[in-house]
Design a protein that fits this description.
Elements lengths: L2 E4 L5 H12 L3 E6 L3 H13 L4 E5 L5 H14 L3 E6 L14 H25 L4 E5 L12 H21 L4 E7 L10 H8 L10 H12 L8 E4 L7
Helix pairs in contact: 1-2, 1-7, 3-4, 4-5
The structure holds NADP nicotinamide-adenine-dinucleotide phosphate (NAP).
NADP nicotinamide-adenine-dinucleotide phosphate binds next to helix 1.
């Protein structure tokens, strides 16, 4: 089986994706930032499944760390066939209240690091698929997380540009989750309340995201596509 590089793989959605891929037999190059202990636990769980795993700490606010990560992962996993860009920050600032530092951090983490990882994946791997994790907000005009939304819209556009540029060599797709997990520190009550605003009147789960990933992996005629896994939320 081939290997995958998953960013933000120690917690939440990224963790679920990394473990899902490992259960399918993928070796996993697991990127994380601050969640060292959680990354160690995920790496142990992956290795217990009998597949290769290695952790890579990198702070994407520093783009030199992003580029270093790409080089290390490609060197350690010569059988890479998948890049999943899941790491993100999510800062609740509208445009007027955006701090300069959070604007540059958000662009570096959510747009420029995925851009550089995609570039280096094309240069050095040149096969398989990239999957960018977006957000249903790319179709909505909600300014509450302004820099985050702008970065995700940029990554959505980049997904289509790369799909066109790279053609049959590297497929490039995206998954845009809606209401899946509550923000850190919030629980089921948050999900229940927010679900009232979703057309399907419920929330999704990490399994819904993994099913979308399975579809993309199993669909060689699909590229440049963004799958909205959001209960219809992006259309409301
Ligand atoms: N949760 C949802 O319902 C939902 C909905 C829509 C879209 N999404 C998208 O799905 C993806 C995962 O979201 P999530 O909610 O599961 O995760 P999350 O709680 O937003 O976790 C973010 C991840 O990004 C990493 N990260 C944060 N700052 C970083 C930095 N400076 N450098 C490198 N990595 C950094 C974190 O690493 P450490 O923990 O190691 O520090 C963590 O793994 C994101 O792209 C998000 O936009 C999620």
């Amino acid at each position: 089986m081939p290997s995958a590089l998953v960013t933000g793989g120690a917690v939440r959605l990224g963790r679920a994706i990394a473990l899902h891929l490992a259960r399918k037999g993928y070796g996993v190059a697991l990127h994380y930032h601050r969640s060292d202990e959680k990354a160690r636990a995920v790496l142990a769980e992956i290795e217990s499944l009998g597949v290769r795993a290695r952790g890579y700490p990198a702070d994407f606010t520093d783009l030199s760390e992003t580029v270093k990560l790409a080089g290390q992962a490609v060197r350690d996993f010569p059988d890479l066939e998948l890049l999943v860009n899941s790491a993100a920050n999510f800062i609740p600032q509208d445009i007027e209240n955006t701090e300069t530092a959070s604007l540059t951090d958000t662009m570096n983490i959510n747009l420029l690091s995925p851009y550089l990882l995609m570039r280096d994946y094309k240069r050095w791997v040149n096969r398989g698929m990239v999957v960018n994790i977006l957000d249903e907000r790319v179709l909505k005009n909600i300014p509450t997380f302004a820099a985050y939304s702008v970065a995700k819209v940029g990554l959505d556009h980049l997904t289509r540009l790369a799909a066109i540029e790279w053609g049959e060599r590297v497929r490039v797709n995206a998954i845009a989750p809606g209401l899946i997990l509550p923000p850190p520190g919030r629980g089921d009550e948050f999900l229940r309340r927010e679900a009232e605003k979703v057309p399907l009147r419920t929330h999704g789960s990490v399994d819904d995201i993994c099913r979308a990933l399975d579809y993309l992996l199993a669909s060689p005629f699909v590229t440049g596509e963004t799958l909205f896994i959001d209960g219809g939320g992006s259309k409301a």
